[in-house]
């Protein structure tokens, strides 16, 4: 099949591209043009990049998307592109709404106009639950986002459902809880922690400043989660699914596990800095993936401590080199 991925230069785009090639599909990706001419995570894997068909485009510019859809005619579309940093959404809500809401609308319209017989996946986020009402969140849980990012993802989520119901399109929403990997961007707290633990171990950094250590998240591995995305589009009916591990861990636990991986006590190096606190915090998230397990046969493979250790060891290797 012909696969088109927006956001192909990010963490999930990397693992999804590898999976699609392994499955024997032809992979095309949309890359936002920048002055540095960089390709994000793909710049670190030239072999993978050489197997991909990449096009410059921008989800906020529908004409560029139309041109790509006309040329590629994809069977499967994975819409991963987003302004995905929660903290940044507070600083720049206008860009967040433009990219995440208008960008998704543009992708859906190009899909409807040029390949309506195909299948479309949208990467939603557990941040839509925000002020949680349930101990564990599933597809029926109340959604009460607590950031411009969460609000934008919720708007895009309902846009996908509206297009599915109104135009009889195969559109799936994956409500993905936090998922990480060695390819996570350095602006995200998990990668900030793994990188700091490696740097401190090597004597390249003295301390680590963080915000709320008591916030709890359901953390999984990106490589596991892209498999769920694919299974959603292989299923006979379009639907919406929570993708999670069913476990919750605090930022403090993540820090402790990262420093433990390099033989250090985090309490000797970590400082809580109020400037990293959010105006409205999401204190607790834990996902119920039972629907994905029942209907798709999916479940996570990588455990929490394995994930943290994987990230720290990858950063140690990069820095040592």
According to CATH, the homologous superfamily of the largest domain is: NAD(P)-binding Rossmann-like Domain
| Structural category | alpha/beta
- Through-space gap between termini: 38 Å
Instruction: Evaluate the radius of gyration.
Output: 19 Å
User: Which CATH C-level class of the largest domain is it?
Assistant: Alpha Beta
Q: Helix proportion of residues, in percent?
A: 40-55%
Q: Mean pLDDT score, rounded?
A: 95
Ranges where pLDDT stays below 50 over 5 or more residues in a row are none
CATH topology tier name of the largest domain: Rossmann fold
Strand content: 15-25%
Q: What is the element string, with H for helices and E for strands?
A: EHEHEHEHHEHEEHEEEHEEHEHH
What is the subunit organization of this protein? single chain
**Number of strand elements:** 13
Spatial strand order of the main sheet: 3-2-1-4-5-6-11
- The total tally of domains equals 2
- Tally of individual helices: 11
> Could you describe the largest sheet, including whether it forms a barrel?
7 strands, parallel
Q: What general outline do the C-alpha atoms trace? A: globular
CATH architecture of the largest domain: 3-Layer(aba) Sandwich
């Amino acid at each position: 099949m012909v696969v088109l991925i927006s956001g192909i230069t990010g963490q999930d785009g990397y693992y999804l591209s590898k999976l699609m090639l392994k499955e024997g599909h032809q992979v095309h990706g949309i890359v936002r043009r920048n002055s540095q001419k960089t390709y994000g995570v793909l710049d670190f894997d030239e072999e993978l990049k050489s197997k991909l068909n990449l096009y410059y485009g921008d989800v906020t510019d529908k004409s560029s998307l139309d041109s790509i859809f006309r040329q590629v005619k994809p069977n499967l579309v994975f819409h991963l592109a987003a302004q995905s940093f929660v903290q940044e959404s507070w600083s720049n809500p206008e860009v967040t709404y433009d990219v995440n809401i208008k960008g998704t609308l543009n992708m859906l319209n190009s899909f409807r106009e040029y390949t309506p017989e195909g299948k479309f996946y949208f990467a939603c986020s557990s941040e839509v639950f925000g002020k949680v009402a349930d101990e564990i969140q599933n597809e029926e849980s109340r959604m009460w986002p607590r950031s411009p990012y969460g609000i934008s993802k919720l708007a895009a989520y309902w846009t996908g459902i509206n297009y599915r119901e109104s135009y009889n399109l195969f559109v799936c929403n994956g409500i993905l809880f936090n998922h990480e990997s060695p390819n996570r961007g350095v602006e995200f707290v998990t990668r900030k922690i793994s990188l700091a633990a490696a740097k401190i171990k090597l004597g390249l950094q003295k301390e680590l400043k963080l915000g709320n250590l008591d916030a709890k998240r359901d953390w999984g591995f990106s490589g596991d989660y892209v498999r769920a995305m694919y299974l959603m589009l292989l299923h006979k009916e379009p639907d919406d699914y929570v993708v999670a591990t069913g476990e919750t861990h605090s930022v403090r636990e993540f820090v402790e596990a990262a420093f433990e991986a390099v033989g250090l006590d985090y309490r000797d190096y970590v400082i809580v800095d109020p400037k990293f606190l959010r105006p409205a915090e999401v204190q607790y998230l834990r996902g119920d993936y039972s629907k994905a397990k029942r209907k798709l046969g999916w479940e996570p493979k990588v455990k929490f401590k394995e994930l943290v250790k994987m990230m720290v060891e990858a950063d140690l290797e990069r820095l040592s080199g």
